[in-house]
Amino acid sequence: MLYILIILLSAIAQFLGPWWLMALVCFALCFWKSSKAASAFGVAFLAITTLWIGFATFQNIANEGIISQKIADIFKLPNAFLLITVTGLIGGIVGGFSGLAGYYCRKALA
Amino acid sequence: MKYLRALLSLAVVTGLLFVLNRPLGPAPALGPFFNPFSGFWQNAENHNKSAPSQLTLAGLKNEVIVKYDDNGVPHIFAQNDEDLYFAQGYVLAQDRLWQMDFYSRVAAGRLSEVMGPLALDFDKYNRRLQLPEGAEKIAEALMHDPTSKMIAESYAAGVNAYIDQLTYKDYAIEYKILGYKPEAWSPLKTALVEMVMRKDMNARSDDYMMSNALSKYGKATIDDVFPDYPVEESPIVPVGTKWDFVPVAVPKVPEMLQASVNARLSIEAENPGIGSNNWAVHGSRTATGLPLLSNDPHLGLSLPSIWYQMQLVSPSVNVYGVCVPGWPGIGIGFNKDIAWGMTNVGSDVFDFYQIKFKDATRKEYQYDGGWRPVTAKINEFKVKGSATILQDTVHYTHHGPIMYDEGQKPFFNDTPVGHALTWVGPVAQGNSLKALYLINRGKNYEDYRAILPFLASPAFNVVFASNQNDIAITSAGHLPLKWKEQGKFILDGSNPLHDWRAWIPVEQTPYVRNPQRGFVSSANQFPADLTYPYYLGWKFAPAERGIRINEMLASMQKATVDSLRLMQNDNFNVEARRILPDLLKILATDPSLKSNQGYEILAKWNLKNDPDQMGATIFERWVRELRLAIWEDDFPSQDPKKPMLLPTRDRTWAMLQKQPTAKWFDDNRTPNKVETANEIVITSFKATLDSLAAKHGPINPATWNWGIAKNTTIKHLVPLFSAFSRKGVYNGGGGNIVNATKEGHGPSWRMVVELDKSWPKAYGLYPGGQSGNPGSALYDNMIDKWAKGELNELVFLKSKDEKHPKIVAETLLKK
Fold first, then answer.
1. How many independent structural domains does chain B possess?
2. Domain assignment of residue B681, yes or no
3. Structure confidence by residue, pLDDT tens digits, B188-222
4. Are strands B761-765 and B750-754 parallel, antiparallel or unpaired?
5. How far is the C-alpha of B660 from the C-alpha of B670, rounded, in Å?
6. Range of B654's domain?
7. For chain A, which residues lie within 8 Å of any Cβ of chain B, measuring from their own Cβ?
């Protein structure tokens, strides 16, 4: 449930505003919903990774991989698959730590 | 503990956001860049994307319709000219905004603001060339004329209407990687783009190397080795054409500057060849009975391409062709009645003056028997990654800037230190927008001639054809009225007779209309033979392309579009025809070459620089080596102290054929031995095969074929972004071949127009694509066809109501 909510709300937030709004979404939703530190991090990490990888993959397919190969070259990555993985990791780490911070902050205020 | 954990985790998140939201050295901010909602994934253009059906743009007076064909070419239908140029700016910015912004930054000397210290010396050089001052002068002229003012302002408004819609996610990939934003467009930026062209065409010089040679060998030898007209030439204006004007007085030749050339300078190889071909065939020689026109400007091949195709339609005009991003109007193209094209006029419009300072303070310099003050100007540079503003002081004489003071390192090695520069770029005004406005609407020969006074710089050989069966060519532009050989050597800055004083009257620059031979052509060679009353320069592009074009045209009857297309792709090597038989005879005298594979390949070569020929590879590399082997000891082009120019290939072959015992063949670096011409030919041939083997392995077609060995590469404008370049484009041709495709230069647009009484047919393409986005399928889609020598049929719509199967999308721009 939390996983779906993060995906939905952060997608809307990033569609309308800057990328870091997703950190606020993870923070707020984990503050509200998370029951454990590990799951706050894990669910937020997975949700953002899913979203970023999913959206990047969708665009990559529509583009037939033209830009991903070139950007992978610039970053000295061997292929577009790894570029998508890096995309997911960057989003996931920020999302995960934001979720964790949300959970810890609630604990601190409880 | 629980507070600490909360604080710590918050600190980690804040730290992550902070680090990921800012550029890391040369890398972009990773957060926004990788975010698929805003970053580079947004530049992954959907293959099936079609243009929006409607857009509302503040600033339009009426509705404008933009139709796109399947090659991404916009066909703009406006109801007035203001809207037309507004829409041109808007549509161009959609596809090429970053590129036009880049060009304007180059000329403004402001690249280091966004690229960092790497670009600083380039910026300083461009400011010292006075590109910004030149642009201001051009912009002033633009604003003075109501027509060009309307064009420049409407176009800028259109570009800005596009910029105003953008957020980070819409930026071109180059903005995202380099981490900067587009800046508002203006008429001044259009003028800056024009200055880039002036610089690319005109801003190099042999003066210093020629002065070094002159001071070593004296005038008689230099006249012999560096003659003012080639041995073999086929000038643009046919030999024997009578000049139908009364020339103005040409300044008298003053005493030549020979003395104390003591500037420090070193030289890189020869100037990169900026060349082009164009020609028009009279109806008496075509299948249709009406003219055909062909043009292929050769420029540095780049991605995004220097050209962009468009059709512009308003009640006053219906024109198709290519434009340079940032420069409104159509530069090379055709309309219902006429077609025109351009090549560069390589006349000498870039001269250095030796300056004699009064004393070590360098505050005054000698002129006309007295002293004149040196003025100083401080250029300021903001450099990416640095908080302080850098200053660069440039000293000026009335000739122009002293390009580099003693102790400074020139950006280009052919710039002498301590010398002032006079060149046409910052002084010629003209009004190219007005010229394009008029030719885009031109109907006949008179309209064509009427644009010429507005073309100042760079000077172009403007070829013309009309459906009234007129053909013509003019070397048009502001050309300084010089005494013979003025500027062949470094000029004396203290002598008023050495100043540029006047221009050749515009109506007297070389031109010809409907010549007897039934065609006109140019390939950057001498505009005219020595009967032309004015001195234009002592060296133009080698004659081979012009010779070949004129031969083919002279033997052509019932020419068609396809015969002209084949001509554009002609790979025949005129130079090899001239010299190879003699060279082979010499090689045959060496018994060790009897069964040499390289020799056999060359002997059996078909004299064509086709991509599947190994002979072309050997010949092209060998003639380069051979010229060095003959001359480098006498005219050391690589000498860091006193570099000299190598004599031309034309002069070299004439010597080999007519003066085989000339003293120049002896290598004076071997004091105990006198080499003969034959020895030099044979040893340089063997050396060439060795160095080719070192580079490409043992002789075999897979690595030695010309199309492979030449390795034509079309680079992105930012050299660092090699991932956005296209390497290994398999193609024939060469520098002195009609198909002038070299390693990084070549035909940047190929066009053939078949004039017609009712509606012309035209064909063309360029090595790139309409989109500037490396993430678009239309970024480089024309390259493969271009390399094969094919052309696209161009979609020239009669009206907005014409149904055409190639039109795939339409956007309505509403006010």
1. 1
2. yes
3. 999 999 999 998 888 778 888 898 899 899 889 99
4. antiparallel
5. 19
6. 574-607+614-704
7. 11, 14-15, 18-20, 23, 27, 52, 55-56, 59-60, 62-64, 66-71, 73-74, 86-87, 90-91, 93-94, 97-98, 100-101, 104-105, 107-108
